[in-house]
Structures are given as C-alpha cells and as structure tokens.
Amino acid sequence: MDVRDQVAIHEAMEQQTISITKAGVKAVLNARTSILAAANPIGGRYDRSKSLQQNIQLSAPIMSRFDLFFVLVDECNEVTDYAIARRIVELHSRQQESVEREYSLEEIQRYIGFAKKFKPRITPESQEYIVEEYKKLRQRDANAMSKASWRITVRQLESLIRLSEAMAKMVCEDKVKVAHVKEAFKLLNKSIIRVETPDINLEEEQDVSQADEAMETEQNENLRITFEDYRKISNILILHMREYEDKHKDSDSEGALRKKDLTTWYLEQMESAIEGESDMVTQRNIIHKVIDRLVKVVSRRSLW
Length: 304
What we know:
Elements: H1 3-14, E1 17-22, E2 25-30, H2 52-56, H3 60-63, H4 78-94, H5 105-115, E3 121-122, H6 124-142, H7 154-170, E4 175-176, H8 178-192, E5 200-201, H9 213-222, E6 224-225, H10 227-247, H11 259-269, H12 276-303
Parallel strand pairs: 3-4
Antiparallel strand pairs: 1-2, 5-6
C-alpha cells in the first residue's frame, strides 16, 4: 500500500475525518462509516511462513483498527475447484435461471434499514463473558506458543463489543446475549490467528479415564496429523460423498453412505501406500476420527 494512501486511511480510521486541500482552501469532512478493504499479497502469492502484516506491508497501527481479517489463499483444491467450475458452467448455460435468489434487493435493503434502528444493550451475563474471553486472549498472547498475527490490545476488546452488538442487530434484538458474544468471539478468534495451522490432535476431544492415560499417550502420537493431511483426507472423503449422493439422489433404496463403507473405500484407494497391518489399523483409526470431526463441525454450524 502506498505511503500516501496509508496516511489518508489512517486519518479516516483514527479521527473519523478526511482533510482535503484545494486551491488553498482546506476542508475537513466527517468520515463515520464502515470500511471494507481488500489487499493483494506481495508478489501475488501469499507466503504462509510470514504474518499477514508482512505479506501486505501494512502498518501495525492501521491493522489494529480493523475488526476482522480474512485471508483467501488460492490453492489447488479438487473439491473447491469442482464446485466453482460447476457453478460457472451453470451460469453460462442457463444464465438467469441458475441464479437462485431467496430475497430481492428491496427486501434486503428494508431488512438492513430495520436492523439499524435497534440499539442493543449488553446484559450483565454478556459483560462477564466478554471480560473472560478477553482475558483468555491476553493470556494466550503472552504465551510463547501464541499464533496471533499481532498483539492483543484493548482495541480487540472494542472489536469484540462491536461485533457482539452487530450480531444482536442482525437478529433484531434489543439485548446482547451470551450467544451473540460467542459468535462474535469465534469470528475474532479466527481472524487473529496465522494462516499457518498447527497439527491436529484427533484425540483431544475424547474423554478418557485415568487408568488409560498411558494408552492414550501412545495413541496420541499416532493420531496426530498435520493440517495439510487432515484437509487432504477431508477433501477426498467429501468429494466421494458428493459423488455418491449425486449418483443415488433419485434412489431411495440405497440410503445414506455409512461410516464403515466410507472408511473401507478410502483404505482401498490408499492400499498401495499402506505398509503392514499396524499401519492399516492406524489409518483406519485416523479416518474414523476425521469423519467424527467433520460431523461435529457440521453439527455445530447447524445448531447456530
């Protein structure tokens, strides 16, 4: 970003004003509005080994004034590429028929105008929850294992409050409830982490007894996979399930694809890469855990 542009946007975000000088006349205009900005990484490709600030070369004071950051990395993904290509082909083949609109533009504008009239107030329960979550962010930031792209300050606390109020406005409520704060915290938490993702422990959400601690420790070493491997396995499973659903969507006799059948199919596809019976058992356990994790993620999204 050019230095002059950084100075201009810094004034608008810090002082909520824009200064204009023309023909010796200086005018200061109010700029109280939301800012939606987009940036491309240096060299046109995002470097996962660097932070977001290093990739776009934006100053820390300006970055700290944004509430949310979302990084879109264009990678070769069979599932995503299939969905995008299919959608584009449908648009070109059917044009307007392929565009399914649940609401018209006028209805959306009326909804936004109505939602803006609400001035939600934070309840005492929500206040306590906001304070606790902010303390967790600060403690994690002080930890050496922190993955945050920048330091957690009071500005992130203000962002959490603004997002919570926005969540309440979105559902047209006068009070900010704990559920609104939780959803706002999820957005903020996903925004402040690095794009690089740590290894996934597939046993971390299981409850085990103290008598099985030794066995659990041994299993954890085998059932810890990198995020890249987890995403690769997930994409293969999802693509197969989608093809299965497309193939049997008109047949009620087949039923849904079972977990055992899905596991067996994947192991058959990876048969050449499996070495020995112990490796087969480990891979089967990993597939079971990946499927369970995918089901939990879908269930959590459906509940909200």
